[in-house]
Every structure is written in structure tokens, then in C-alpha cells.
Design goal:
heterodimer, A: 132 residues, mainly alpha, two-stranded antiparallel ribbon, B: 271 residues, alpha+beta, Alpha-Beta Plaits, four-stranded mixed sheet, 11 strands, 14% strand, elongated
């Protein structure tokens, strides 16, 4: 093989470059599992800690639900949501959701940052004031 | 080993069936979770076939106009941007010749000619802004309100070009630093969207009148233009009212009673 020295060094540099993301994350800080919290005063005061729908449904469907809600309110003028358990809620991110979940940083951002999703809710909707 | 045509068709058929079955099971499950839920309206909601306003200029002075403007802008988190090029407004005072071009005359009294007129989105029956919006971000509701869906606005400003009343404002910059006191119950807007008066749809939905009507001391009356027994129809039937740029065929829903302040109280409206 001609120029084997140069080629081998070249391959070495190439591998180092390509593998950069792997060793960068390996040396960097360890990945922390997201830990969303629901320990807000409003939720603590609740007798039965129950969101609009079951925890499972909220976990998997909240994005779809919020999307449906905004269409219902803004486009169809339907403001209220009768949940599966029969309770009625005002469909409002600012006035209903964030009333209980007043800890946006520990509730919303915790998972969204981990998953690198950037919903643009807060460009317009006013986030609750947080102490810390 | 070559696969026979018969075998191939069998496998293909089975895979299609399995695929369809799996897909429907998945989608069926998704929609099934919240099956029992539904959307409802507030029973107190104010309803109409076509909302309209009558603005009686003989009952509104400069101070009233300022107050109405402040209330509306505060309630809806409308920023106060000092640079007039970036200005955002939902309801504002305008001169007679700018409000009603072509309807002025040389013999008009100074009071009528020079008093400020309260103008806002006309919630037209034939709204040109809705016609040009490429995303249906602005649309006409069944009750006549020309609504804005900020989620869909892409900021193309076709609607601003189409609106003959200048009722729409574009957010050239982030409005938040210019909002003195934020109303935490209403969202703000973001850079790059168009906004305007929405007839206080959020108040109508819970049975309250629009903010401008409530704070006008009777100078502004709202009601159903399609209902012949409504107060607004009685005023339009008994007083002479004008609309802005009627020759354009946009059919505005905002009517103006134009008369001098001296006539104030001279003719009370019926009903």
C-alpha cells in the first residue's frame, strides 16, 4: 500500500471526528431522567389529586388535547370541556391548566427540555409567576 | 428456491390484512381513551345572528374615548409602542375625514368635523380580510364576529392590505416589553402576527358585554342586527346612522350616529 502512514493517520482523524458525539456525551454531565413535579399549593390542597383526565391519558394525550381545545375555543367558540368523569372545565391553558400547574419550570419544561421539544405556547400565553 | 406466484400472493395478502388490522387497532385505541368527553358552551353565553354596534358620537367626548381605549387595550394586553410605525391598536380615535372619507361637506360644523371618532374593526358582513387570509387565521364566525386565530397567523399581512379601515396592526417587534400591566387572564401576542379587535368574544362567551360597550356610559350599544326587536335595530330604524366607506361593499356592522354635542339629550333613543 502506498502512503500507508498518511492513510492510517487520516482514518484515525476521521474516526475521531465521526465519533465526536459519542465521547462528548460520555465525558459530559450524566443525563438526568426528567422528574416533573406536581407539588404546587393548588394541587396539594386538592382532596383527590386528579387532573382533567387520568394521569395516563394526560401523559400521552395532553398535546393532542391542548390542540383540540384551542380549536374548540378559538374556532368554534366552545369554551367548556366535560371530562370523562362528568366534571366541567374551562378550556384555558392560562386560566385552568396553569392555575394548578403553577410550576411551569418543574412541570412543563422538565420533560420538554429532556425531549428537546419546544412548544411555542409561551410566546403568547402568559406563564405563571414562579417564586424561584 | 424460487417463490411461486401463488405463494407470493398469499404472503402479500396476509401482510396487507395484518397491516390494516394493526393500524385500526392503534387508531381505535387512541380515540377511544377520551370517548366520554365532550365540548359544551356556557348557558349564559350571549348569542346573536350578526353582532353589531351603534356608536353614538353625541354621547362620547374625548375623555370617554380615551377611557374606552385604555380599558380595551389593558384588557387585551395591547402594547403601547411609542414609535407610530410599530403601533398596535384595537380601538382608537380618528378624524371625521379619515373615518368617513367622501361623506364630509364644506358646510359641516366644526364640532362635527373636528371631534375625534371612535373607530375599530367593523366586523364586516363581507370581510375582505377573511377572503385573502391564506391560512384561515382570520375567519367569520356564525354570529358575525370576524375572529383571529393567532395560532394560525403566519404574518403575511394580506389582511392588512385588504382591510380598508386600517383596523389591523402587525407586531413588528415583541410586544411584551411594551405592556405595562399584563392581564394574566388573556394572552399577549408574539412578534410576527397581525391583531385586531375581536368583539370581546371571550366576554360574550361568559355572558358579558364587550368592554367598550360596558365602559361607554351608554354611548355604544351592541346587539343583534338580524333581530328586528333588538335595541340596536330600533336605534338604526329611528336615527340617521352612517357606516365607514359603505361604497366598498364590505357591509360594516358598526354604525355611527353623528351629531353635535349640543344636541346631547335632545333626542333620547327609544327602547
Amino acid at each position: 500500500m502506498y502512503d500507508s502512514g498518511k492513510i492510517i493517520i487520516g482514518i484515525g482523524i476521521f474516526l475521531l471526528f465521526v465519533a465526536f458525539p459519542f465521547y462528548y456525551t460520555a465525558i459530559g454531565k450524566p443525563v438526568v431522567k426528567p422528574d416533573p413535579r406536581i407539588d404546587t399549593p393548588a394541587i396539594q390542597a386538592m382532596e383527590k389529586k386528579q387532573c382533567v383526565e387520568s394521569k395516563n391519558a394526560m401523559k400521552t394525550l395532553h398535546m393532542q388535547m391542548l390542540n383540540d381545545w384551542r380549536d374548540a375555543v378559538v374556532r368554534d367558540g366552545q369554551r367548556f370541556y366535560v371530562a370523562t368523569d362528568g366534571k366541567t372545565y374551562n378550556m384555558s391553558l392560562q386560566n385552568t391548566c396553569m392555575h394548578c400547574h403553577s410550576n411551569k419550570k418543574k412541570f412543563c419544561d422538565e420533560c420538554h427540555n429532556y425531549m428537546a421539544v419546544k412548544p411555542y405556547c409561551w410566546d403568547c400565553h402568559i406563564e405563571p409567576k414562579e417564586g424561584a | 428456491m424460487a417463490i411461486k406466484r401463488r405463494e407470493f400472493l398469499k404472503i402479500a395478502g396476509l401482510s396487507v390484512a395484518a397491516g390494516l388490522g394493526g393500524f385500526s387497532a392503534f387508531t381505535g385505541l387512541r380515540s377511544g381513551i377520551l370517548e366520554a368527553s365532550q365540548y359544551v358552551r356556557d348557558p349564559k353565553e350571549l348569542k346573536a345572528s350578526r353582532w353589531g354596534l351603534v356608536i353614538d358620537m353625541s354621547k362620547l367626548n374625548q375623555e370617554d374615548i380615551r377611557r374606552i381605549m385604555d380599558v380595551c387595550h389593558k384588557k387585551h394586553n395591547v402594547p403601547a409602542i411609542p414609535n407610530p410605525k410599530d403601533e398596535i391598536k384595537w380601538i382608537w380615535p380618528e378624524s371625521f375625514e379619515h373615518s368617513f372619507p367622501g361623506q364630509e361637506s364644506p358646510y359641516m360644523g366644526d364640532a362635527i368635523k373636528h371631534q375625534p371618532y371612535l373607530v375599530l374593526c367593523n366586523h364586516c358582513d363581507n370581510p375582505p380580510c377573511v377572503r385573502v387570509c391564506p391560512t384561515k387565521a382570520t375567519f367569520k364566525r356564525a354570529d358575525g364576529i370576524v375572529m383571529m386565530d393567532m395560532h394560525r397567523c403566519i404574518g403575511c399581512r394580506f389582511c392588512m392590505a385588504a382591510c380598508p379601515y386600517g383596523a389591523r396592526s402587525f407586531n413588528w417587534r415583541d410586544p411584551r416589553p411594551f405592556i405595562k400591566e399584563m392581564n394574566p387572564e388573556f394572552p399577549t401576542r408574539m412578534k410576527g402576527v397581525v391583531e385586531k379587535c375581536t368583539f370581546c368574544y371571550e366576554l360574550l362567551a361568559v355572558g358579558k358585554p364587550p368592554a367598550c360597550v360596558e365602559h361607554s356610559n351608554g354611548g355604544i350599544v351592541f346587539g343583534d342586527l338580524k333581530d328586528p326587536n333588538s335595541e340596536i335595530r330600533k336605534i338604526i330604524a329611528t336615527k340617521f346612522t352612517i357606516r365607514r366607506k359603505p361604497d366598498l361593499g364590505t357591509l360594516p356592522s358598526v354604525f355611527y350616529v353623528v351629531s353635535d354635542k349640543e344636541n346631547k339629550g335632545g333626542h333620547e333613543h327609544v327602547g
